[in-house]
Amino acid sequence: MSATHDAPDESGVTRAEYCALACAEVFRGDGEVMASAFGTAPAIGARLARLTFAPDLVLTDGDAALVDGAPAIGAALSSLVVESHMPYRRVFDVVWSGRRNLIMMASQIDRTGNQNISAIGDWARPKAQLVGVRGAPGNTLNHSTSYWVPNHSPRSFVEQVDVVSGVGYQRAASAGPAATRYHEIRRVVSNLGVFDFETPDRVMRLRSVHPGVTVEEIVEATGFDLAVPSVVPETRLPTPLEIDLIRTVIDPRGLRDREIR
Amino acid sequence: MADKRLSLDELVGELRSGMSIGIGGWGSRRKPMAAVRAILRSDLTDLTIVSYGGPDVGLLCSAGKVAKVIFGFVTLDSIPTDPHFKVARQTGSIDCMEIDEGMFYLGLLAASHRVPFLPTRAGLGSDVLRNNPSLRMITSPYDDAEELVAMPALRLDAALIHVNRADATGSGQILGPDPFFDELFLGAAERRYMTTERIIDTDQFAAEGPLQTMCISRLLTDGVIETPGGAHFTACVHDYGRDEEFQRAYVSAAADPDAWATFRQRYLEVDEPDYQAATQEAPSERAGQLAGDAKEREVAK
User: Fold this and answer.
1) In sequence order, which residues have a C-beta less than 8 Å from that of residue A254 and are 6 or more positions away?
2) B257: domain range?
3) CATH (domain of B186)
């Protein structure tokens, strides 16, 4: 690949900042829902959305509380302003009520939006045991779910995931109306571009390329037949306010630059 | 009122091989590790472990105690996976029921409420159903006729939890931010055991924390065991955080048979007071010793 990921483009915005911005866009129009964000770019994105175009968003401390404002990434738990108690048992009340928008990570993601965090290889005796399905099966059926994949390659964007943890469009459809009723895979954000499933047959489509990346690079780094529109826009440029918030308020320690390799 | 105080040995004496044992906590947080270590020293085997898994699952797998694990994840939190659980899975040495963590909650709740199952969307369309052919579906008897997963009750022979404070009659107090699902593990089990940092008089609970921290009633416990440091090396917030350095030493020792033998000898083949004493050593000294021992063995080879 020719793009150097950490290098600023002409406007001085880094790839990590485009990724954070693309994650923030996932929360646009959401109103008062709990934003859960795993990974650095999603965590920055949720805070950026909260501070700008999605002011009613409810943020978590990543532990057992909902917090006011948009605390800096890596801030001590004790420094946060708590607005509500949110232990795990109560998280399920939120998940199953649908009042949540989630960006989680994916070790593998496929063409119809299935995600895998369980195991690589045959489930019965995997080549590599990963963390486990966690809440992915239930999350994907109950509220909007998006994915963050910081290492876009044919190994992460695969034709078919090894263990369906998060449920994609085709699997949900074949499981029936109870599965599709609240199912939405909104976006996939990678270090190379932004993707959605806004195609007639609900397969993954290239939505935008991050500045400095070509469509060809993305197609080459994707292990399945990606839907590519005739015109692919670039991921939008952050506003001066947005870039200032990212750099000085949300991530002053620059943790975003450690995530994008 | 009954005095429910037990020793760790008495607790292990009430368990049997082949039992289904639920373990409270979450990941590498507030795990009843002293009880787990006591099981490691016992001749119990063939256990089914039901856990929001952390190093409890890994350690029990490492000692060949486990026939089956029921889990939604096994993680050390600050380290994504447990090395011993990985090996157990990748060598196929254990059976598994891997389910969504919400299904897990409903399974415990169903067992607590003595109903055979609870309905949920979680699992539909995922490989959880494919990999667990024993899971069945239920059609809503109402007009919607939705077809949902019937998550079966996860009935337990025994449950183990660890709390910050308890009294001798088996009431417990959790002073950290999250009670997790400990109450439901107890509710789902035939025999219920609670280890605690400190046994205090009942009238001292109020001085330790507000009413909602007193979340384990004696209706739910059969035995209470005082084990200071009993969640180490997992986090027991309010009393101590996770011992990250020790956890890293655990993970790196697991990668090397010699280092693991040293780790086992120093920390697992000793009784609980000696374990606690060994972990009191200065962290740098402790890590240095482990590395040094491994190096010595390397040279000896």
Assistant:
1) none
2) 244-300
3) 3.40.1080.10
> What interface predicted TM-score (ipTM) does this complex get?
0.94
The structural domains of chain A, ordered by start, are 15-259 (3.40.1080.10)
The SS3 assignment for B236 reads: strand
In a domain, B107, yes or no: no
Beta strands in chain A (DSSP E): 34-37, 58-60, 65-67, 82-85, 100-105, 108-110, 115-116, 119-120, 128-129, 144-149, 157-158, 185-190, 193-196, 205-209
B74–A131 C-beta distance less than 8 A: yes
The answer to whether residue B288 is domain-embedded is yes
Chain B hits for A92, CB-CB cut-off 8 Å, are 102, 105
Spell out, as residue ranges, where chain B has pLDDT lower than 50: 288, 291-301
Residue A160 DSSP code: S
* Residues shown for chain A: 261
Query: Considering CB atoms only, which of B71, B92, B126 is closest to A137?
Result: B126
Residues B166, B54 share a domain: yes
Q: Tell me whether residues A131 and B124 touch, CB distance under 8 A.
A: no
A176 and B147 in contact by Cβ < 8 A? yes
Instruction: Compare CB distances from B73 to A132, A137, A179 and report the shortest one's residue.
Output: A132
Return the residue in B75, B97, B124, B130 with the most chain A beta carbons within 10 A, the one to mutate for interface testing.
B124
- What's the domain count of chain B? 2
- Residues of chain A with Cβ-Cβ distance to B85 below 8 Å are 129
Chain segment B45-75, per-residue pLDDT in tens: 999 999 999 999 999 999 999 999 999 999 9
Q: Rounded CA gap, A9 and A209, in Å?
A: 13
Same domain, B168 and B284: no
Query: Are both B22 and B72 inside the same structural domain?
Result: yes
**B127/A163 CB distance under 8 A:** yes
Q: Same domain for B207 and B271?
A: no
Contacts of B238 (CB under 8 A, 6+ apart): B164, B175, B176
B261 in the same domain as B184: no
Residues B13 and B83 in one domain: yes
pLDDT tens series, chain A, 261 aa: 344 445 555 579 999 999 999 999 999 998 999 999 999 999 999 999 999 999 999 999 989 999 998 899 988 888 899 999 999 999 999 999 999 999 999 999 999 999 999 999 999 999 999 999 999 999 999 999 999 999 999 999 999 999 999 999 999 999 999 999 999 999 999 999 999 999 999 999 999 999 999 999 999 999 999 999 999 999 999 999 999 999 999 999 999 999 986
User: Which structure tokens are listed for B232?
Assistant: 């180490």
Residue B270 lies in a domain: yes
